[in-house]
Amino acid sequence: MGKPTIDHGDQKKLSVLIVDDCSSVQVLHRVWALKLGLEVHIAENGKIAVDLHRSGASFDLILMDLAMPIMNGEQATRELRAMGVDAMIVGVTAYDDGPERQAFVGAGLNACYSKPFTEFNLAPLVQVIKEINEKSI
């Protein structure tokens, strides 16, 4: 299997918000995102993600864990969607297809992946965002 690549072109750098309380997951997702040319931001829980948006921040992609302290991924996703955030929100969770995962998806995710989430999952998502951005220009 080859290494995923993204055509960076002359567009502005896409941004990703990694929302996960596990520092090792943050590091892995950050490395893959940087390899794909993304601007990376980290939030340790859903409340921080929501507060960032309330303060005017915006991101092209949000990678959202489900199980986090203070505000979990389901709550954060519901709140972000209620605020009108239209960024692609992708759930990344260790939960199987049980009720917790279904509720997470139902909160407004664009997609949901099981851990481990890799650069092979991330690259196609970034390409979709680039294609959407090109069409809206």
TrEMBL record:
SMART domains given in the database record: REC
Gene3D superfamilies attached to this UniProt entry: 3.40.50.2300
Keywords (A to Z) from UniProt: Phosphoprotein
PROSITE patterns per UniProt: RESPONSE_REGULATORY (PS50110)
Boundaries of every Response regulatory domain copy: 15-130
SUPFAM superfamilies attached to this UniProt entry: CheY-like (SSF52172)
InterPro entries: CheY-like_superfamily, Sig_transdc_resp-reg_receiver, ST_Response_Regulator
Name of the protein described by the UniProt record: Response regulatory domain-containing protein
